[in-house]
Amino acid sequence: MSLFAAAVCGLGGSVAMGAPLAGGIAIPSGDSLSSPAERDVAQWVERMQGAPCRKSYAGIFVVMSANGAMSSSRIWHACDGQQQMERVESLSGTPRTVFRRNDEVRTFLPQARVVRTDRRDAAGLFPRVPLVSGTSIAQFYTSHLMGQERVAGFVADVVWFKPSDTLRFGYRLWIEQDSGLVVKLQTLGADGRVLEQAAFSELDLNAPVRAEQLSRLMEATAGYKVVAPSVVKTTAKAEGWVLRQPVAGFVPVSCRRRAVSAADDAPSVLQCLYSDGLASVSLFLEPFDPLRHTAQPQISGIGATQLLAQRMPSDVWLTAVGEVPLPTLRLFAGQLERSP
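Now predict its structure.
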């Protein structure tokens, strides 16, 4: 699932617009007083970003890739001004429940009786739109109102976000008319083909979900082994890396050095995240290991997510992952170099 599809509440993202609530979480002012036909791309984005904190909700969402892969999850979401909380329970594959409190993430694996803790910036699941400071979404996308349709029992405006270049995919969004919540999203290739889509199959916009309830459940780790690999906030520059030229529209969001396990001597991987406000790219850097890494670049993709991995100078292995066309990942890899 793409990070945009994965991304509308902006937990941990940089709040850029709107008036702050008590406690510091800002809710964008939404669509102001404009009608759907009058909104520009910035107004649509602002409306979507503020939606998850306007109402608590619960529902089931389904994600489908172009190759037919499908998964579903049940979600509960609440915001109390001090914190944004959600619980996501997978209904497909290995049983797991993910709790998020702002940028804090706990993943409960009931079969292994393990809880993994982590911190993530633009972490999230459909239907978030990340809040990223410094981006110029209106410069790289235009919005087109396509009409109205019903999704999960709610009337939604259908809006096409058309990219202005070939460095990013387009999006078709179904935005619930009253709340502004994204209830369905399609990621579109350059030829208009649907690469991936996510949608609510059930949705309750008046769910009796309270943040404090979810917070208590998140703390209920009795009977589980809590695993907390080290995560250190850093910058690409501090780690000795720089992009010779920025990739058009993408700005640095965060950079963290993550241990691969909870062992004291566990090796670490550097992850730097870039975003244009909708699409995002992660660059993972680690020492080259001939037992795990190949001499030739590796390329793969599923749905909207593409991956490029290759050996870099100084015996470093780069893995670039993002919901962008492959040439965009090549551009990132080509511009990345050791800082002087």
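DSSP finds four helices and 23 strands in the chain.
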